[in-house]
């Protein structure tokens, strides 16, 4: 079978190997779709935290079971499945609290261990999510949307909240959609005018602000009648955005860091102390978040067709990958088909 490996920053190779042997407690899954994530883009560029090379990327996966033993989920050969790509220990302090998403020894497929850019993969059965009721492309976007749903849940969002989401990438778009579903007022921020038009015209955010404008704070003050935002989400991973986000947050507000910056951040303590800021990090997702997303997808409550902008055959991916790094290509979510 063939697979694609990122051998070092900027270098993909297509190689072949034997179909993996299924270990006890695992299932063989034929990969059907792979979503391209910001993690994949950063790994290719050499600026992804928690990463080593060479690595088979891919953790936004849709697949079909081709071999499986008896299991608690009742999964069987031929079933469509999504993948929760976070391998947790089940016994550490985080896992004992149900926070498997931040296990002390967490291994993420496609990051810490090889992922799904291969024709067949052997995956722990416990990570598989039954999804016969969804289309392949819907299954493949469950994981990024689950990250968005987890961030919403971490924020303790209410319908009375005004929300700013910095970053109109896939995670930010999911946050916006789910915040709107909860009844919140949503303000989007980005530097890409096309993305801002998309989230306003398709996702339905109330307001869109270009972060390059000189009067961003003044615009937010006007839109919120001086209160600023109850919740600010960063979905950029940009140092500048992460450090500036507190400026847009109301007194008593919450700042949710979803994007990951590989470095140090600096905040002026008296400023965030005066607001009694709640600083929240949101990492990955849990089964609860995946179930929420599957329900939304089954209800057709998310614009999948416009969200997935670029689809290419699996083995042609290396020829297209560089273009997906360029904003002018209009990519929101790129997808591989096997």
Short description:
This protein is α/β, with parallel strands linked by helices. The protein has helices at residues 38-45, 93-96, 136-140, 142-155, 170-181, 193-203, 216-223, 239-244, 269-274, 287-298, 304-307, 317-321, and strands at residues 2-8, 11-16, 26-35, 60-67, 80-83, 86-87, 107-108, 120-124, 128-130, 162-166, 185-190, 207-210, 229-234, 249-257, 278-281, 308-313, 333-337.
* Low-pLDDT segments, ≥5 res: none
Element-by-element helix/strand order: EEEHEEEHEEEHHEHEHEHEHEHEHHEHE
Number of helices: 12
Biggest β-sheet description: 7 strands, mixed
- Total strand count, please? 17
Q: What is the mean predicted local confidence, pLDDT?
A: 96
The proportion of residues in beta strands is 25-35%
Shape: globular
Secondary-structure content class: alpha/beta
Determine the N-to-C terminus distance: 12 Å
Percentage of helical residues?
A: 25-40%
Using only C-alpha atoms, the radius of gyration works out to 20 Å
Keywords:
single chain, 338 residues, alpha/beta, 6-stranded parallel sheet, globular
What layout of secondary structure does this protein have?
Blueprint: E1 2-8, E2 11-16, E3 26-35, H1 38-45, E4 60-67, E5 80-83, E6 86-87, H2 93-96, E7 107-108, E8 120-124, E9 128-130, H3 136-140, H4 142-155, E10 162-166, H5 170-181, E11 185-190, H6 193-203, E12 207-210, H7 216-223, E13 229-234, H8 239-244, E14 249-257, H9 269-274, E15 278-281, H10 287-298, H11 304-307, E16 308-313, H12 317-321, E17 333-337
Parallel strand pairs: 10-11, 10-13, 11-12, 13-14, 14-15, 16-17
Antiparallel strand pairs: 1-2, 3-4, 3-8, 3-17, 4-5, 5-9, 6-7
Helix pairs in contact: 4-5, 4-10
């Amino acid at each position: 079978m063939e697979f694609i490996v990122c051998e070092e920053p900027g270098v993909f190779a297509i190689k072949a190997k034997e179909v993996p042997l299924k270990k006890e407690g695992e299932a063989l899954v034929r990969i059907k779709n792979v979503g391209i994530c910001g993690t994949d883009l950063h790994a290719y560029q050499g600026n992804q935290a928690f990463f080593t090379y060479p690595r088979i990327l891919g953790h936004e996966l849709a697949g079909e079971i081709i071999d499986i033993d008896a299991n608690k989920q009742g999964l069987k050969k031929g079933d469509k499945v999504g993948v929760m790509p976070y391998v947790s220990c089940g016994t550490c302090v985080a896992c004992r609290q149900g926070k498997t998403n931040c296990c002390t020894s967490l291994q993420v497929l496609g990051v810490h261990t090889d992922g799904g850019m291969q024709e067949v993969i052997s995956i722990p059965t416990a990570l598989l999510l039954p999804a016969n009721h969804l289309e392949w492309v819907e299954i493949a976007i469950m994981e990024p949307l689950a990250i968005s749903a987890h961030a919403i849940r971490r924020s303790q969002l209410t319908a009375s909240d005004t929300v700013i989401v910095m970053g109109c990438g896939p995670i930010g778009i999911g946050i916006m959609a789910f915040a709107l579903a909860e009844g919140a007022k949503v303000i989007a921020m980005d530097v890409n005018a096309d993305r801002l038009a998309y989230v306003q015209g398709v996702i339905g955010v109330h307001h869109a602000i270009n972060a390059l404008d000189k009067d961003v704070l003044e615009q937010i003050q006007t839109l919120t009648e001086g209160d600023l935002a109850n919740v600010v989400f960063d979905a950029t991973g940009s140092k500048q955005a992460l450090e500036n986000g507190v400026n847009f947050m109301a007194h008593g507000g919450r700042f949710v860091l979803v994007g990951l910056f590989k470095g140090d951040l600096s905040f002026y303590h008296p400023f965030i102390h005066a607001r009694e800021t709640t600083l929240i990090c949101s990492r990955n997702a849990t089964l609860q978040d995946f179930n929420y997303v599957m329900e939304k997808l089954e209800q057709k409550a998310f614009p999948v067709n416009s969200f997935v902008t670029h689809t290419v055959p699996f083995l042609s991916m290396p020829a297209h990958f560089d273009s997906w790094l360029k904003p002018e290509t209009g990519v929101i979510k790129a997808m591989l088909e096997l």
